[in-house]
Amino acid sequence: MTDEPYAYRYVGPADLLAAVRPDAAGRPIRSPGDLAAWLASRDADERAEPFTFVVDRGGSLRLAPRRSEHVACAGGASVLSAGEMTFVHEQGRWTVSEVANHSTGYCPDPDSWPAVAAALDAAGLPHPGRFTDPVVFRHCPRCRERNLVKDHDFVCALCGADLPRTASRTAR
User: Fold this and answer.
1) How distant is the alpha carbon of residue 66 from its chain centre?
2) From 153's CA, which of 34, 82, 94, 135 has a CA 20 to 30 Å away?
3) d(CA 142, CA 95)
4) Exposure class string for 66-102: b at 16+ Cβ within 10 A, else e
5) Are strands 146-149 and 51-56 parallel, antiparallel or unpaired?
6) pTM metric for this prediction
7) What is the pLDDT of residues 37-74, one digit of tens each?
8) Is the pLDDT of residue 172 over 60?
9) Measured between alpha carbons, how far is 32 from 43 in angstroms, rounded to an integer?
10) Listed residue (79, 122, 121) closest to 101, CA to CA
11) How far apart are the C-alpha atoms of 105 and 108, rounded to whole Å?
């Protein structure tokens, strides 16, 4: 068994992956100054919304506007986590107020949080210490559709098959 974090490969629509320009990946955030500068380039309405984020294979946080695809933010590469992140400006600094692993393109497990925490800690960004809205994804063993599990109902929304209760790292 390895201590390396699990890397999630893209499992979304092929046309989105084909449209990715690796040179246009999300903005790397390595310090509070990086975040402040990037957020200053956004308008107030956009700053009030969650942003798309990934943690790349090198452990760096990358951000893109909310309506960006996670696979574009990652430059088409595998990630250690992905989702949405909201920031608030408090006491003269930007802080992560909410963070979720909601990415249907990568379907990261809630247990990808340590990679997010490490990226935020390395960038010197205060955070809530957990996913504030964790999402559980499962792939259907019958039809292979991606499912977002709600209310602990492990049933495929497409074909009605039972979904695995635990994540399968080999099925990704």
Assistant:
1) 11
2) 82
3) 42
4) eebbbbbbbbbbebbbbbbbbbeeeeeebbbbbbbbb
5) unpaired
6) 0.92
7) 999 999 999 999 999 999 999 999 999 999 899 999 99
8) no
9) 18
10) 79
11) 9
